[in-house]
Amino acid sequence: MNKFETNHKLLKALSELEKLHPKKIDLGLGRIERVLKKLGNPHNKLPATIHVAGTNGKGSTVAYLRAFSEAQGKKVHVYTSPHLVNFNERIVIASEEISDEYLLNILNRITIINDNQPLSFFEATTAAALLAFSEIKADLCIIEVGLGGRYDATNVITPDYCAITPIDLDHSEFLGNNIAKIAKEKGGIIKGGAPVVVGPQSEITRSVLENEANKNKSQIKFWGTDFKTQRERGRLIFENNSQLMDLPLPALHGDHQVI
After folding, report:
1. Which of 1, 112, 164, 196 is deepest in the core (most CB within 10 A)?
2. What is the spatial distance between Cα 160 and Cα 232, in angstroms, rounded to a whole number?
3. How does DSSP assign 44-107, residue by residue?
């Protein structure tokens, strides 16, 4: 099969997955858990995993975490959404975008196992990413939440670390009509005692996230209290209770990138 034929079949496979979308969007993990069980629970076979939630800055946070890790010679799996040009951008395997051939293979396997049962497009592609991550070795896995956190398809994983970027009002039709409800949903990724690092938040949001961390016996570190970052004389200054670091500024533009 040549590259054109593979790409055509891949686009068709992605299009077919969209037809399986439930008529009503109801948040929950039941559908993806059913598929993953039939696949042998690949989400339980991942390398050390960082789960990233929040409203603003998830993408740049994932990009930094990946860059830091790869600079140390690590191979990294990454799952993000949405993509800019090609769907393959969403799934990075051992620091390389997934190939058309491998993606098509995995999507076909999921389609067969799902057997035409209702499954959202994001649930199907999340299952595809998790299956790929379980089959190829890497040192680290970074997974970005799609919507919310607690009932997002990515929340089937058991993370080793969690990161929560600034939370704001978003997707209120699904997550709740006030910041406290939204924070509780996004804080739903906190579990299993995994340490949590939290970006700048309102007092209400901090309180909600701290409560979630306490319930799950997770150590939580807040920007502005436990550590802080700032731009100073063209440098990035990082400070916590035990150290002060003078670092180069991030390559991404904007003062918000130092937070």
Report:
1. 164
2. 32
3. GS-SSEEEEE-SSSHHHHHHHHHHHHHHTT--EEEE-SS-SS-GGGGEEETTEEPPHHHHHHHH
Whole-angstrom distance, CA of residue 67 vs CA of residue 65: 6
Residue pair 102/92 in contact (Cβ under 8 Å)? The answer is no
Which CATH number does 3-19+30-225 carry?
3.40.1190.10
Calpha distance 121→173 (Å, rounded): 19
Per residue in 87-130, pLDDT tens? Answer: 999 999 999 999 999 999 999 999 999 999 999 999 999 999 99
Q: Which candidate, 143, 126, 134, 140, places its Cα nearest to that of 33?
A: 126
- Using a 10 angstrom Cβ sphere, with 0-12 exposed, 13-18 middle and 19 or more buried, the burial of residue 127 is buried
> pLDDT per residue over 173-222, tens digit each?
788 889 999 999 999 999 999 999 999 999 999 999 999 999 999 999 99
Domain boundaries, the chain: 3-19+30-225, 226-259
pTM for the model stands at 0.91
Q: Using an 8 Å Cβ cutoff, are 90 and 81 in contact?
A: yes
pLDDT higher than threshold 70 for residue 259 = no
